[in-house]
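Course exercise 7: structure representation. Students receive a sequence record and must write out the corresponding structure in token form. The form below is the worked example handed out in class, using ATP-binding protein (469 residues). Read each field label carefully; the graders check that inputs and outputs are placed in the correct fields and that the protein name is recorded exactly as given.

STUDENT ID: A-19
EXERCISE PROTEIN: ATP-binding protein
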Amino acid sequence: MEQFVNREDELHRLRALYESDQAALAVVYGRRQIGKSSLVLESLKDREGAVYYQAVQETPPVQLTRFIEAAKSVYPGITDIRQAWEPLLRYLIDQDAVVAIDEFPYLIDQDASLPSIIQRLWDHEVDESGATLVLTGSAIGMIHEHVLDGGAPLYGRVSQTPNGRIELQELPFRSLREFVPGYSNEELVFVAGVFGGTPRYLTPLDSSLTLGENIERLLLDADGPLHDEPETVLQMELTEVNRFFALLESMASGNRTRNEIAQGAGIDSRDTSYYFDRLETLGLIERYHPVTADPTRTKTTRYRVRDPLFRFYFKYLYGRAGQYELYGDGAYADLIEPELPAFVSNTFERLCHEAVPTLYTDLQLLRVPGQWWHKDREVDVVAPTSGATLLVGEAKFTNSPLGYGVLAGLEDDAPHIDWTPSDGGDPEYEYALFSRSGFKPSIEEAAASRDDLQLFTLDDVVEALSQAA
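STUDENT ANSWER:
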């Protein structure tokens, strides 16, 4: 069974809705394997009068029969109710039941009227009820279309106090140690860079094994539980998978602009809009912009695979399984391990972004720190503030101590960043260097003699993330 870690806020919100004297509607959504079912099941533990139904891709009669089977052990009288969604749900509302329907979009696929039926019940039948209805879904676009967006049948019906709209994201970095309690801070960063924060991918990790042994056992082994996971998930969600796979492989190889990605996939960039939009809707890729740019206006856009495990799969496993089998036992050590620090460097950079608010509590940040780039210039960490200070930094996940050349390059790039303080004038630059392997004496000497330069080790970053709320 999936290990249950974190999600305290979401658990509290669901349980508060269950305890309410008023009818409550909640929707729990997020991409596949993110932990929606585990959250709902955990929230229902030891709760009397709760019905949990795992929807399936079946015909409407089978779905109704399975729903009644799930409910009758708690509410035997439901077997006397006509087998249709409206009378069945009305009966449970009259019982003040807590009803959780997992993968609600499967039901909509077969009966598009179901959201409107729930709307009608919620508008006219729940005034005297304390029932709670929890809907979950991995089809994020469908959840928005039928529940969350303006014009959706259930728009405005989701509970507001507490907020019943629960979008599950990856677990925060600080939760990873609960899955591999014996790992060092550096090993935790590698875990984040390969397995991400999805509970389903973290649970099989064995903290008595090395990172390499876990990767071999879970991913490289053809019988490993995560070996085909990304491909399986994508085939459940997508048609024309070949083009989607080609685009994801191109992104995982390092292509970032739409033209680069399309070219790497062998697809005309004019034919990619549908595929990019679909992958974004599913939460599999994300677009991002220079942190100082207005996302609604800028045309400077890059794309990346959101989930580290998917990125690992499409970089090292997709279409290459036979290569590792042929190579034998040394495949990980010889073919993957030497490249792993470079692969994980993007994750380390993101963790540095997340750590900045804790490391610089004296600065009032205007937005979440991020990257900045223009033409051939790029800065890993940029954070505008409410004053005249612009925080700029570099994050290096290499095997060697960071040298003075990195600072010199950062000082050369900083004046090119397009940002002006709100009160006008020139920015005052605060420099930050983040390094996996420490710093050369020349950098340490510079930091000791300057008040505008701070050095942060990997341990500093991990400690800051452990303190973050």
